[in-house]
Amino acid sequence: MNTALSWIKAYVPELECTDQEYCDAMTLSGTKVEGYTRLDKNLEKIVVGEILSIEKHPDADKLIVCQVNIGSEVLQIVTGAPNVNVGDKVPVVLDGGRVAGGHDGGPLPENGIPIKAGKLRGVPSNGMMCSIEELGSSRDMYPEAPEEGIYIFPKDAEVGADAVELLGLRDTVFEYEITSNRVDCYSVLGIAREAAATFRKPFHAPKEEAKGNSEDAHDYVSVEVLDRDLCTRYCARVVKNIKIGPSPKWMQRRLAASGIRPINNLVDITNYVMEEYGQPMHAFDLDTVAGHKIIVRRAKDGDVFQTLDGQVRKLDGEVLMICDAEKEIGIAGIMGGENSKITDNVHTVLFEAATFNGPNIRKSAKRLGLRTDASGKFEKGLDPRNAEAAINRACRLIEELECGEVVGGMVDVKEPLAELRRIKLNPGRINSLLGTDVSREEMLEIFKREELVYDEAANELIIPSFRQDLEGYADIAEEVARFHGYDKIPTTLPSGEATTGKLSYKLRIEQKARDIAEYCGFSQGMCYSFESPKVFDKLLLPADDKLRQTVTISNPLGEDFSIMRTLPLNGMLTSLATNYNRRNKNVKLYELGNIYLPKALPLTELPDERMQFTLGFYGEGDFFTLKGVVEEFLGSVGLHKKLVYDPKAGKPFLHPGRQALVEYEGAVLGYLGEVHPDVLDNYEIGTKAYVAVLDMPSVIPFTTFDRKYTGIARFPAVSRDISMVVPKNILVGQIEKMIEQRGGKILESYQLFDIYEGSQIQEGYKSVAYSITFRAKDRTLEENDITAVMKKILNGLRQMGIELRQ
Amino acid sequence: MKAKLDQIREQALAQIANSDTMEKLSEVRVAVLGKKGELTSVLKSMKDVPPEERPQVGQWVNETRQEIEKKLEEARTKMERALREARLKAEVIDVTLPAKKAELGHRHPNTIALEEIERIFVGMGYEVVEGPEVETDYYNFEALNIPADHPAKDEQDTFYVTGDILLRTQTSGTQVHEMEKGKLPIRMIAPGRVFRADEVDATHSPSFHQIEGLVIDKHITFADLKGTLAQFAKELFGEETRVKFRPHHFPFTEPSAEMDVSCFKCGGKGCRFCKGSGWIEILGCGMVHPKVLKMSGIDPDQYTGFAFGLGLERIALLKYEIDDMRLLYENDVRFLKQF
């Protein structure tokens, strides 16, 4: 919302402040000023001059030499402008002055353009006559300005006067950010009321009474509202003997400052009232309204309608239409029809000011792809009382501007107006909500400034209809707070029962995961939760894979963001690919993020959100590097028992011979492996890469931060090394299992220290060597203790087909 | 005899003085004090000394021995010291050679900022909790006093899964989940991922993070809200940080405010970070709307509370001077390693 300060001051004439003071005070009382622009920026030393004579330039065909009276003296000015005549009054920028832009109307330079006396083709020129573009504006906003050349003032302009003032440019335009609850502030009056209350100055409402003639509008037009759910009020007034012409300068200037192009008096009045009251209006040519009858009803599905911008629109059964006795003549609240639009030959005008259902207008405008200034206002939900005020104000302006004869009376079809809301005043409760000590008197003073009437007998505030946002004591507390001043409210800390600050258990485990990953050299990445369904093909998932069952977004930004991920690998591999493509070496990444698994499709309940701890890397390291990180993490969160790695993980995106499920106490916690070369190709990663994924909801039940000291061994340990020849298909995991099973209580640990395949070893076999350590808690082990255990282990190994190496 | 001993001593001391290595010193020791050493042979010849002179001679021998041993020890200590000095001299390293580092990984800047914020609130007695990212319309909108036709629903450009299930557009729904648990008082923050239909560019992302805060208790006031958040701002941005509360509107709080902090780059003088204003907008907040309390089963006549929400990325971008939001989701290690 952009509005000139001069327009605000029209209702708050006593308002005196600098632009910055206004900006700060309004922002602190709740009407946020986004910024402001001085219209006279870079306009310096510009006065009204009268051209006394014009001569040809001796050396240039296209230049003329003018003698210009600026009141204090007569200046010689050379110009190339084609449109000036003797007697014209023009803006003249003096030597040492400044203009805002060039005559081409291009973007305005930050510091404007300085003007100095000089010579033009040898003839001295002591200033410059200005076009409207040089004054920083355009013909759009100053329709009387010539298409090309110097701006010319009316004959009665005073020579030597401040030209900038005369052009209405001694003004500042403020841009406001209005919050959605303050529908009333999408109007100049709404902001003016806030300004009055903020600066504690009286607010002068505009005059709304139109005299009207002795006729009755009901004799000119009838109104029938068929769909009352979408139109709670329809006000119609009639103006006859229309005289189309330009609107006065003050109105043009105010509209222009709001960014609205002045057109003619009739259009300008409807636009002016829309800005002033926030109530859009429409003007129909009554002679084109068949049967002089207005019917408000929903369109029929499939109807087409040509709006006044010439476009043909396809309608549906939820679009509200304004119709006459025969046809549709406007889309309610959005745009009028080509068939009833005002032309310069209009004689009689039907003014419409209505209250349409906000959400319906919003949705219709969206479906039609036609958002207009009017729909933007209607969609916020307008005050039915405002419709009447606005239409009367428009008629008043018609009379003031003498552009027609207002017919008496108003056709008003409406649902009963809601009674004004009343809210109990309880200053104690307001103070206890705010933590303040504002006196009842100050509160009443604030309410008065805001036009909230206090009914002393009932101890109630009567809320004016334009303040639809005020519903209860909390809203009233906010009014007190913002006009008492948010900055004057004390700062305290909550008292009361002490609470324990902590992370949830899940978050503690995740924090540990981050710590361990980072100790191990992995950096944290973050990936999107949504991706393309194509990633399943890239990851070689079979067509019937369960992971292809996704939570699908019905209105995605595009296919690439259309499904919620069911596994975290695409994000990880994409990130690795980005790094690979940028030639980053030895990239190690981890991510903690959710996957989203639907419980049933179509979705009837919320999906299962599962936190995944994903690790991925390329460069130095291998499968066992990743295995190490997984074990470090699981150990750090209390999973101290043996992890089992099942090579039959069945993950299509991993190398078939280099993948494993991670299992603990019979539960699958996740998987790890080398990325399948086909998948690497799909992601354009030109080197081996490894990934591990831990499903945190599966991990968490096994975690604990409890620790127990088991003592430091006091008796010596005994070690035995064994070297074996093992059939290749036997996993060391199986050997270890055997050692554990048969090692008994005195087995302390075992360590693989050599594994070898090659020339020394028979084909189909590998050499494996372990160091096994025994220790008893309560005594020094004897040789025969060891021998007995070793015998058991060796027997076990032998049964597996493993031979001891000689 | 005395003369002999004196001679041995003189000779030994001279040899000690002339010894320049440990080996030579050792030779002297063996030659004089060893089993076949000169002094030892003197001792062996004690039997030839008349018994009455023996004590005297014995004393001389001991004195001589002690003196030689003392000198030997002195020489050895001195020589060891010299050797150590020499070794230390030889062992000088170039301390400016590159460090041998364990390659630690790096946390994401979002997480660093989040942990900083969590630390502050945990210190003030807040529990850190989470809520679902895929959410129902009720928790994301309706229970937050955003009814079916409210324009906020459009403004936020919600991603829908079904008519009723959506990707949450704000973490505010966790307020409702927390209140519904029925355990009072509440002091919580809830960080998490939220989604809005914004195209990806330098300042927008369809997925980003918010941190929600909620305090519910008896006698909670707007002044408490101001005090708490002012304290938070000082902790996060520095002791000299000033805060400013401006009235604003959120459907689920009343009164509502936005909080600006004095620019932590320029201290409020005006710079490119604060766009010359000296202030930076940080968060939205307010007193929990009585309707919201009621819908969540809390009696607004007994309890009041405040809530706040801030954008994590915004804090991270500002704090670490990151100029493009896309960097946060690219995961280029050259970026991540700077944190």
Explain briefly what this protein structure is.
The complex is a heterodimer of chains A (about 800) and B (about 350). Chain A is about 25% helix and about 25% strand.
What does the model show?
Chain A has 806 residues and is α+β, with helices and mostly antiparallel strands. Chain A has 20 helices and 40 strands. Chain A has a seven-stranded mixed sheet, with helices on both faces. The radius of gyration of chain A is 42 Å and the shape is elongated. Chain B has 339 residues and is α+β, with helices and mostly antiparallel strands. Chain B folds into two domains: 2-90; 109-336, BirA Bifunctional Protein, domain 2 (2-Layer Sandwich), CATH 3.30.930.10. In chain B, a hairpin with a 2-residue loop joins strand 6 (243-250) and strand 7. The radius of gyration of chain B is 42 Å and the shape is rod-shaped. The N and C termini of chain B lie far apart (84 Å). The mean pLDDT of chain B is 92. Chains A and B meet through helix 2, helix 7, helix 10, helix 12 and strand 27 of A and helix 5, strand 1, strand 2, helix 7 and strand 4 of B.
Overall pLDDT score of chain B: 92
Q: What is the tally of beta strands of chain A? A: 40
CATH superfamily of the largest domain in chain B: Bira Bifunctional Protein, Domain 2
CATH architecture of the largest domain in chain B: 2-Layer Sandwich
CATH topology name of the largest domain in chain A, in short, is Phenylalanyl-tRNA Synthetase, Chain B, domain 3
Q: Which residue ranges of chain A are poorly predicted, with pLDDT under 50 across at least 5 consecutive positions?
A: none
Question: Which strand order do you get reading across the main beta sheet of chain B?
Answer: 1-4-5-9-8-7-6
Strand coverage percent of chain B: 15-25%
The chain-level mean pLDDT of chain A equals 94
Calculate the terminal CA-CA distance of chain A, rounded to whole Å: 93 Å
Shape descriptor of chain A reads elongated
Structural category of chain B is alpha+beta
Helical percentage of chain B = 40-55%
List the total number of helices of chain B: 13
Helix share bin of chain A:
25-40%
The spatial strand order of the largest sheet of chain A comes to 28-31-32-36-35-34-33
The major β-sheet of chain A equals:
7 strands, mixed
Tell me the domain tally of chain B: 2
